[in-house]
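## retry 2 of 3
previous attempt timed out at serialization; input unchanged, resubmitting
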Amino acid sequence: MRAALSELATVRGEVVTALAVAAIVAIVVDDGAAVALGIVAIVTATVAVLAFSAGTRPRERNERSLEPGVSATDEVERQRILIARARLQELASQLDLQSPPPIETPTSPIDSRPLVSVVVPCFNDERFVSEALDSLRQQSYPNWECVVVDDASTDASWEVIRENTDGDDRFRTFRFESNSGSGAARNRGIHEAEGQLLAFLDADDLLLRESLTDRVEALQRHRDDPSVAGSFSAVRSSPEDVTLSSLPDRRHATQPPFVDFVIANGECPFTLHAPLVEISRIRSMGGFDETMTTGAVDWDLWYRMLRNGHVFVPSRTLGAVYRQKEGGITRGNKAGHTAAGAALIRAAFAPVQPGVIVAPTAFPMPEPLGSYLATLVVADRAVRFAAMALAEGDLGGMHKTLDVLDTGTWLLLERHLDWHSIVGRGAARVLGLRPKDVGEIEDVLTPLIGAVIAATAEATA
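## retry succeeded, writing output
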């Protein structure tokens, strides 16, 4: 760039010199027209030189002031972020907004090792039940018992169960005289269980070694939240020839931050083997519906628990493997399973049926699912505009914006709204920032988030 400017300046000088010589020659020879032309040329060249210099010198200075690798656009955005940070700090000071204290998490998530009862129903699974019990026997969590219920198998399942459990007092076995269905077998296991916590394992499926440990730890982290009924792990579907020796001890899995009636969105939230649940809550629901013989019996239980306001939290690990077995109830009766599922989905989008709300938490969910979804969409917008008003220093406008929210919805909003994202988007709009820049002002945004949350709680309590 500098070389080009130097060359241009040289050419510019040569042109001016040539024009000046032409004018002098014209004067000497007393040619008036040539003199006039020479003077005009000199003035035009001079003006052009001055204009070019004025336009290039500041640009040169700006280019020299930028850090290496930083474009002018990036520099503008950086300045905007600095201005936004200063504005938010000033605003927090003017409005006396204080950052909320950090949330303290327990340093030791397990302060006890509650007894976990694992219920294993079995019907004609002589090929797999031994390995299922072995997957339980290898658990790193030490305080467990297993209740095995054979549902009148017609193959050698009962003999295999007895061979694999005799002499181990952690196992208790029971057998039906006639086939009664998976719901009845699991209910017998629930009745016989002596633990505080309950998990399920079908006779043809497998647990990873850290499965119980991870779920107990996840549940213990929320032991002070009365709405949390249990934890859950991820479950992987595998071909029926999967073996216990091929499984890892633990594998990370991406999970939602929690599951409740809204998050489930009318669907089955997890497979039977995923949850670890407080046994008292299962019993308060009446256990499984034994009349459901075509499938979705576990889905029905989770649906009823979620309607009562119970919440499940994730372990964020893979905990079990579900065999895709030929002749399983889902593959063997697709139409029946589909019909049962369709009924549960329709029930979620309707007012709750009589007899479902039997053991509610502080926030049961009797309204149609669509009602809660609409409340959250309205709240997302209202909170965002409230954040915009607050970012402008308009406290009254913030409170007035939140008047559209319904009272009695605070627990729903507290649980489901992404406060950092919503307040950040509102503040960014007022401050002229891009949405992706919100992370750059996260620390100074915290007092505003706390103020918006407090105002929303006040409006919806």
